[in-house]
Predict the 3D structure of the following.
Amino acid sequence: MASLFVTGMSHRTAPLEVREQLALEEDKVRQILGDLSGRGLLTEVMILSTCNRVEVYGVAEVPGEARSAAFSLLGAQRGLRLPDLEALLYTRTEEDAVLHVFRVAASLDSMVLGEPQILGQVKDAFALAQSSSTVGPLLHTLMTQAFNVAKKVRTETEIGRLAVSVSFAAVELARKIFGSLEGKSVLLVGAGEMGELAARHLVDQGSLPVYVTNRTRSRAEELARALAGTAVPFDQLDASMESVDIVITSTAAPEPIIRAAEVQRAMHARRSRPLFFIDIAVPRNVEAAVNGLPNVFCYDVDDLRGVVESNLRERQREAQRAEALVQREVERFAERLKDLEVVPTIVSLREKLEAVRRAEVDRALARLPNADAETRRIIEALSEAIINKVLHAPTVKLRDSSRQGHGPRWIELISELFGLRGGGKPERRE
Amino acid sequence: MNAVLFDVALTAYIVAAISAVGSLFGRREQLSRFTLLLTQAGWICHTCAILARGVELHRLPILTLAEVVSVVIWAAVLFELWVERHSEIRVLGAFVLPVVLALGLGLPTGLRSLAFEPQTQSGWVVVHVSLLLVGLAALILNFGGALMYLLQDRQLKAKHPGAIYYRLPSLEALDRLTLTTLAVAFPFLTVGLALGMVSAGHGWGNRLLFDPLALFSIVMWLVYAAMLSGRALGHWRGRRAAYFAIAGFFALLLTLGAGVLFQGRHGS
């Protein structure tokens, strides 16, 4: 009986030097997929190859052989020998394989917990295998379910919702202060790279108007062009604070350029509308006392890092909920898999009995030329009732036994007993 | 019958309040759903209790102080459910339900005694009370919103986001909640109090001045009037507005307290 397996290496088992060599381009992967399925070791196969993991998902009689074949082919692309790779590989089969695939797709096995790219990469790998015709019913069912589970994890937990980079943490804080960022504007002071990045993230949230100021006028204009914003003379910094909502500072000034007194004046002019300072400069550009003013919030780089850390802890807590969710889905899927195993036998058993019934009913009716419609209907119904009653016990027995892990034995037994051809595969009838 | 129904409703509110506060820290979807269900169930029981009282007494059940408070918290829970459904403010229950309980726990005795009968059933009094009901219910939400605002403001200032930071909505949303509830409450409060004065002026003459509840309600009105004009002029938003909302709510509690403690013309 062919079984589902996962084999490969990830950031948990293999160093970057090896992973980066095995991160292959599409054409190579396609070629290997073709080679592998040509050898007859695997009935279904797909390859996931990203910079953090190289994994083969497949269905094979002997997963061990399939694994050796797959990784000697993969390694050969970069001159790596199988024995060197063996130690880095893990293999999971059946339910453990399902769990692994679900966890990978849901980003629970990612380096950055909950990062969103992995799902797209898994989908691409699946599409590539589909276009290479190496996907069969089992992988198809598995992957479709994996995508559903990943989506469920994303919507039912907050695992992917919290920022894990400093610049996105700034955007998130802005949202906690202003709600929707629509109608808000940004002032970028200084030309530091981090500042520009944070400004860009903010602007991307809803094409917020952005103003740029710098001691060097030409630099401000240059940056304003890059951000599709407006350059503002440096001496108008204080006046600008009256109208914008978010101020990002990243100048190389040795001491604060924004003082609490000026901010207080600006707040008066703003009628106390909230003002958010993102101070990415080191040393800091905004006086610490600014954060003490009502409706003013000031975060420096360390504060933002602190928020990122809290977010990561929060993601971990959410991950525990996600793990429980995935576990439930695996159990449900395992039931389905086992049902899947006995379905062909049940179908062919039914077809077999139906063929017998049809033939016998036709013969009987041929001998009753004067039978009226009512009689014919009764004969049909009677014969159908008989085969349904006969089928009931073996169908239930098959399903139960497969759920208890004895599926193959019963499939064989019933196929023998009822003379089903092809060991449980549906009979082809013309 | 109405007292039993009210007890059931109150019990549901108690459990819902505990569960709401729990889900504020615990981040459990099931707990939030449970809270919502219980609140809804409690509210339906409460509705039945009010109707049953009206039927049993053959009059509008908003004429004694206990009855009024009961209907105020009934309306507050209704508003809370509405806001939670129609905005991003999902955890409002954790702040409104405890207030509802604080007001509601003293009620059963008042509701059970059927002996005290209201002095008047005039149409004006009914309108006076109904308008105030809506205003007071909105002010309970105003208070809840202000509490949430101050908590979130502290979280953002302290820069150490905790569970509450993740669960509470944005400051902007909370500020909008306090402003909207105030803007809704104030006209009801103003007209309601004015009607009360006019009808009391007719009935009581200058004895109005010696009714503690009436006096305190004027103080409360002044606080809210100051707050609304401060906001309208622009400067009182955010934290300051939240402080005022809390001050206003204490004036409101004192007003109700005065109605209970001192035997003025409003009775208890």
Notes: The two ends of chain A are 28 Å apart (CA to CA).
